[in-house]
Each structure stands twice: as structure tokens, then as C-alpha cells.
Amino acid sequence: MTVEEQVREIVAKITHVDKGIITRGSTFKEIKADSLDVVQALVAVEETFGIEIPDEDAQKFQNFGDFVSYVESRVAQVEKV
Amino acid sequence: MSFEKKLALVTGSGRGIGRAIALKLASQGADIIVNFFRRRETAEQTAKDIQALGVKAEVIRANVGDLAKIDEMFDIIGNKFGRLDILINNAASGVGRSVMDIDVKAWEWTMDINVRACLLCAQRAAKLMEGRGGKIVSISSLGSFLVWPTYAIVGVSKAALEALTRYLAIELAPRGICVNAVAASFVETEALKFYFDEALNKDNLPVTPAGRMVTTEDVAKVVAFLCSEEAFMIRGQTIIVDGGFSVSSPLVSFKKKD
Lengths: 81, 258
Description:
The complex is a heterodimer of chains A (81) and B (258). Chain A is mostly helical and 81 residues long. Chain A contains four helices and no strands. Chain A is globular, with a radius of gyration of 12 Å. The two termini of chain A are 22 Å apart. The relative contact order of chain A is 0.19. With 258 residues, chain B is α/β, with parallel strands linked by helices. Chain B has a single domain, classed as NAD(P)-binding Rossmann-like Domain (Rossmann fold), CATH 3.40.50.720. The radius of gyration of chain B is 18 Å and the shape is globular. The mean pLDDT of chain B is 92.
């Protein structure tokens, strides 16, 4: 499973939406994710990939695609190390 | 008051009230463990500011709502220092909702961080305080007995925290550990903006009989006092720091005379 597919599954499970409706352009509002959902998704992704996503970075995410791109780049950094 | 050679863990001390408490204890000589969850930059900055006061600071990331993370944090403290003198249960979270909109997820998230974590941290801390006469202070809120819009879950969690404080105070007294809480009214922090951004702005924040809002430093000073030997006979209490707000009548204006 790709990083994007894994993140999509995590977000869908937390927000109880069909993962089919989550596209890279979906905003958190469109996915019906409230602030608690977002924090829980961040924590679940952190634990899945062994990375840390500080709020300073997370606040810049405009949509699901931004979130995925960030996780992809962080995972790539971890793999390099 | 001096906390030289004392080691203090302040949960959620990257910012707001926790940061002020960490700096206050550090200014009186305590080494500080800065715990944070979501904002590393602010926690690292707090640690730098503590070190600038000439004491040691250690940053540990842990979501105190997660039992395993609490255990990991205390394992680090135990292995590295083997002791703890002061625990400040400050980390808090919550979801701003009216009672009819509260769901189980929001309830459990808030209770796990605001109450369960305080119990679990106190249990682990008490073992590291063995024979040292430790101090535990938890940060509560006037929302434990006053009703504020969308504050229900947090208010209930703080009421439970105050009850927990009384039980801990009595049951840990034979171990020489003093346990108390501090409850503040509106303190200008990011958390205040989170809950009351729409309802409150600088112009309509309630003025206290004391003539100004409570600051993070006001809270930190009382916490430091409760951590001192001068407060040895205060047990299981929730000390209110609100400039008289909670005992004042809404019928009376507190605006200062010019």
C-alpha cells in the first residue's frame, strides 16, 4: 500500500467517511473532520510511519493532498537516515 | 522559597500556564522536564529559556492521554534521573461543544488527558518521590463549578480532577507527598482564544474586582507556593486565582474609578 493509501485509510476510519470520496483536493471540512479528528489523524499517522508532525507544520495543510505530500517527504527523510 | 536540587515535571509546558510555571520553578532553582505533545518549537524554546536561568531542562514529547506514552515518559525520567520532586499536572485538552453535541470520542479524549493522565502521572510520580517529600499540583479551572458556553466536557473533567486531588492528597499523605490544585478564571493564553474566541474579545473580557485579568504568572506564583515547604499544611485544596471573579455579584460593576 502506498503512503497515500495508508493515510487515506486512517483519515476515513477516524472521520467515518467512505475513503472513495477523499481526494487529494479534499479539504478537512469536506471530509467532515473536526479539530479533534484532525489531531487524532495526525497522531495515528505519526504512529504508523514513525514520524513527528508538529502543529506548526500541520496548520499549513490546506487539503488532504498537502497532508499526504508532507507525510511522503517525511517518510522519505526517515528512509534516507 | 528555593527549589535548588529539585527536579520538576511540568506537563504541557511548551506554552501558556505550563510554560509560566516551568519558568517560575526554574527561576527558583529547580531543574525542569518540559513535556509537550503537539508543538516542539515552543517546548524547545521553553527549555532554552529555562537553561538561560542556570538550571537544567529536558524536553520529553508525550501525549498524556495515551497510557503507553505516560509510561515511556516516566521510564525516561526514572532511567535518567531516578527521582522526581515536583509533578505539575498542567496538560489539558478539550472539545468545545454544547452538551447535546458531545459524543463519546470527544468525552474520552478530554477525560483521558484532563483526568486519567493526572491519576496515572501521580501514580508513577509517587514512586519516584519515595522518601523525598514530593509535591503534586494540578491545574483546574473555574469551569469546574461555573457554567460557560461549550465548556461542558472540560468543566466536568476539571470537577473530577479536583475530586481526584482530594483523594490523592489523603492517600499520598503517608508518603510525605503534598497534593493540591489551582483553579484560575480567564487567563490570556492560546487555550482561552480556542474556547472563547467568538464570545470574548479584549473589550468584553470580564474585569475582575482586582481590576485586571489573571496572568499566567499569577497562576505560576501560587503553584510555586504550593510546591514550597511553606504550604506543607495545605492538602487536597483547590486554590482559586481569579481576582475575586467567582465570588462577585454580576449585579455590581467592577470598572475602576478614574
